[in-house]
Amino acid sequence: MNTFSYIKTKLDSFIEWRLKAYENADFGTKQKAKLFYPIAVFGIITLIILMFSSIYVQLNTMDGIIDPSILILELLLLIIFLMCMYLLVKGYYQFSSQLFLLSATLCAWIVIFIGESDFFTRVDTVVLLFAVLNTVPLFLSKKKATIFVYVTFNILMVILFAVKLQNEYDINKAQFIDFIMDTSLAFLFSGIAGYHILKLNQKILNKVESDYNERLKAEKELAESEYRYRNLFENAQIGIYRTTPEGEILQLNPAMQELQGLTSIQEVVNKNFNDADVFVNTNRHLFIEQIEKDGFVKDLESVWTRKDGESVIVRENARAVRDEKGKTMYYEGFVINITEQKKAEEAIRESELKYTALFENAQMGIFQTNPDGQIIKANPALVNILGFDSVDELVGRNLITDNFFVKTDRSAFESLMVKQGYVSNFESEWRKKNGEIITIKENSRTVKDEKGNRVYLEGFIEDITERRKIEMALKENEEKYRSLMDNMNDLVMFVDNDDKILYVNKRFKEKIGYSDSELIGKIGYKLLLSPDDQEIILKANKERIQNISSQYEATFIAKDGTKFDFLVSGAPVRDADDNIIGSIGNMIDITERKIAEEKLRKSQQLFHTLAHTSPVGIFRTRPDGYTTYVNPKWMEISGLTFEEALGNGWLNAVYPEDKKVLAENWQLYSKEGKESIAEYRFLKPDGSVVWVLGNAVPEVLDGKIQGFIGTVTDITERKIAEKKIKESEEKYRTIIEVFPDIIMISDLERNILYANDALENYTGITPKDYRNKNRKAKIHPDDTKLMQDAIKELLDGDQTHTSLIEHRFIDSWGNLRWFAGTMSKMKYNNKLVLQTITRDITEKKKIEEELRKYREHLEFLVKERTEELQTTNEELLSTNEELHSQREELQVTLKNLQNAQKQLIQAEKMASLGVLASGVAHEINNPLNFIRGGAFGLEDYFQENIPDHLEKVKIFISSINEGVDRAASIVTSLNHYSHRDESKITECAIHDIIDNCLNILRNELRDIISVEKNYSTSNFIIKCNEGKMHQALLNVLSNAIQSIEGRGDIKIRTQIKNKQLQIVISDTGHGIREENLPKIFDPFFTTKDPGKGTGLGLSITYNIIEEHKGNIEINSELYKGTNVFITLPVILK
């Protein structure tokens, strides 16, 4: 029996090893695989035996001939069986088992039908089919009807076989029917029996499998429970133990070992909890009595002595675990080390004793109130401060409702308490018991419970009434004298005997420009006086020590370098013991008085010179406004003579509509002695109108108005420029407002500074939300980083604008929109800002999404019904191409709009540049004329007064005049450039226009590009719009300069050819590629880098030359240079 069990165990182990592929399979499949494996092995062995048996039988027949068809069939079946065994081992149980049964059934019937053995040999093969049919229930699990398929198939095959036998062996009909009935019923009976066996087996197997799964689940839960318990036991922060009632240690967790001072549990193995060498427990006998009596011990505190001799205080909880009969099996308990807790409690008790002593003996009032203000505690000092007789009389009173506070509004106090939970040095007025008002300095804090609710207030108060009275008296006295000093018109300084500054008054600091921190403690004469005057101060300060007062003049130097002449009166300062501790100086500013006469003399001479050479009109009047003088420029501007302008005659030149208001304002300002500034018009005798800016200021001498002096500046050109700017602004503002795309300017903090109406139309962002960062409308969160990276790259890099950016945006109504646009950096109000131009492409995105979905759907349909939907496919492809074409058209349109935008910006820049040039030219002319007049005045002054020095300064005066001439030349060029009257055709000097252009471009020539001019000497004139011709030639010359990298040459030649003027401009630049020459005059065509050109310059030049009935041609050779030929009609003289 032992041998049999051993063999069975080995066989089971071998089968499990062979079927390891079913390790994770369900229980039923595992069992069926284990059952099928030996059957398959037995089938293979049986088939081999049958093969040899068949050979033996055939050899021993009368013929002695082997039928090869049977052997081949059996060999094929053997191969199939071996294949089934292989599939079974690999994990394909269902397939291998069904293949095994099916192949065995088919093979048996084939042997029966094709075999040439005798009748009995063939019929007895049918017996094998019953064996096969009886094994079917063992291998089926789900489709029970398969049994009846096998039964039906075998009955049909029996019928066919019976027909074959009847024909071969001449079997009568009764035997034929009997054979069919017997075998059919046998097969049917086997099938029915097998079906019920299968059902029964399935129920049993399901039950067994359910029990098996439950057992596995229980084992898993037990293992998990054991793991959790073990983990809890090992990692618990409190000591856990288990002992026998006699004290034998069964278990100790690591925390318990640490509590006892053990390094390993092995130190107490086989030892008793009560042994003195384990640890000493002062209350062990109480523990035994209580746990045996009640079955548990709760919060038992005792002193244990660890292995190292240290005593620890512990709190112990334990229970007795008993069996069914009530006998105690073991104790298990939890131990917490409360040594530190006990120490803390003792420290708290000591602290309370100290606090009580401090509370009772403190000189400051100490209190504690509830949140409503009712006093809970008060020390004797507080009782004394508030004028009560005892603590009991004060405790219970309410600080708020019993009118302790003079000001009932304690909002500032409460605000600090709520905000920071305490107040520090908070001063307020309190009322004592007798009604006396005292000043209190308070330090309080709020005490809260664990939930954050206010439990009570506690704090210290100090009576500072007397201190405040003394401080107030001192402060008032100090403020009185400081106010007296600071409000003096004279300057006051106080220094000690070492000349260190101790005090200066407000007027001194205002005049000299130094602050207290820059003056106090410094040596006064070293900081404030020039070296020449320092000896005067040293001498005077020595006299002060000798009790001598003095008065002297000295020059003080202010912080900004300005020099002031002061009349100083100094006197010694004594302390309470009559000792001289320093000196005080009173200083009167006499700077103006000393230089007044000199200034007056120089002013009169300078006025005479400037008035005659001034580029602006100058006039003088009496205090009553009566005009006494006008200079030649004033007469030129107004059209009046000197005599006509005197008195109130100047009003005759004022434009009628401006006369009344101007006269009233002039009378008002002249009476009040105020500065007058006004813009008005002169109507000259020739009928021309001149706009002027008039400015008159009072002439004051010794505080009395002596008259008025003023200027009038011709601002006619500026007014014209302003009108053009306004018209230009209105034009471009209208274009921007109606522009369908969003145009927006924002600062670097994402605040919107300006946006057109398209922003609100598309996003719902109104102007009031421009600086609201919490507005609903915003960039989609997934695209925020994309935009931030684009902005960072734009700001950090050299490029002026970004590439086209597509992003999502959530508008104010919560809708998702798609936008595509660019950002560029620019200056706006002298600040770096971002300009965004973007277009709503939501519909485009929707079309693309629909197109994508349509394409995917189309591909699916094509896969499913290619032939049937061929025609539809072609139509969809056509639609796809049309949509793609529309998309390309949209992209072209977007590109055109972007080009239009660039053109618009460039046009606006050019317009602004023209206006700016005009304004700059006129504004610069005025100071240039002043400089020129000043130079003439200086030359006259030196010639009349100090002729000996004239030669020394003449070179400087010549340099000034040369600079003025150079600046005037630039101004003239700017005027020519800005003169853009669209319709005005005048006779122009073409060579002057070329020179003006070169003058503007002088900086770009950089002294490394030489210009050679060869002008025609023929006598001719040309009629043109000077501003436009100036722009055309400027564009050509600018392109020539930009094409030269490094050193190079530009040659300009003019000549009369065929009664026309030909201008030839040649450069040695990098040239133009041959394929680009036909497109060179196309708008927006440029070969320059992005941001360096718009492609409009030569297009504009071409149009200007065509407008003047001229012609322009360009010849160029790459890397050699370019020649520009301009032909214009002329009038020969």
Task: Summarize the structure in short.
The chain has 33 helices and 35 strands. The protein is of the alpha+beta class.
Keywords:
six-stranded antiparallel sheet; 1133 residues; alpha+beta; 6 domains; 33 helices; 23% strand
Structure explained in plain terms:
The protein has six domains: 2-215, no CATH class; 236-343, Beta-Lactamase, CATH 3.30.450.20; 362-470, Beta-Lactamase (2-Layer Sandwich), CATH 3.30.450.20; 488-589, Beta-Lactamase (2-Layer Sandwich); 595-714, Beta-Lactamase; 984-1132, Histidine kinase-like ATPase, C-terminal domain (Heat Shock Protein 90, 2-Layer Sandwich), CATH 3.30.565.10. The protein is 51% helix and 23% strand. It has 33 helices and 35 strands. A six-stranded antiparallel β-sheet has the order 2-1-6-5-4-3. A hairpin with a 5-residue loop joins strand 17 and strand 18. Helix 4 (93-114) runs parallel beside helix 7, helix 28 (870-945) packs antiparallel against helix 29 (950-978) and helix 29 (950-978) crosses helix 30.
Task: Label the overall shape.
Answer: flat
Number of helices: 33
Oligomer state equals single chain
Radius of gyration: 58 Å
Topology (elements, then pairings):
Blueprint: H1 2-18, H2 27-59, H3 68-90, H4 93-114, H5 119-123, H6 126-139, H7 146-169, H8 173-235, E1 239-243, E2 249-252, H9 254-260, E3 280-281, H10 284-294, E4 296-305, E5 311-322, E6 328-337, H11 339-361, E7 365-369, E8 375-378, H12 380-385, H13 391-394, H14 411-420, E9 422-431, E10 437-448, E11 454-463, H15 465-486, E12 491-496, E13 501-504, H16 506-512, H17 516-519, H18 524-528, H19 531-545, E14 550-557, E15 563-574, E16 580-589, H20 591-613, E17 617-621, E18 627-630, H21 632-638, H22 642-645, H23 656-672, E19 676-683, E20 689-701, E21 704-714, H24 716-738, E22 742-746, E23 752-755, H25 757-763, E24 778-779, H26 781-796, E25 805-810, E26 816-828, E27 831-840, H27 842-864, H28 870-945, H29 950-978, E28 986-988, H30 990-1000, H31 1002-1005, E29 1009-1014, E30 1020-1024, H32 1026-1042, E31 1048-1057, E32 1060-1067, H33 1097-1107, E33 1111-1117, E34 1121-1129, E35 1131-1132
Parallel strand pairs: 29-31
Antiparallel strand pairs: 1-2, 1-6, 3-4, 4-5, 5-6, 7-8, 7-11, 9-10, 10-11, 12-13, 12-16, 14-15, 15-16, 17-18, 17-21, 19-20, 20-21, 22-23, 22-27, 24-25, 25-26, 26-27, 28-30, 30-35, 31-32, 32-34, 33-34
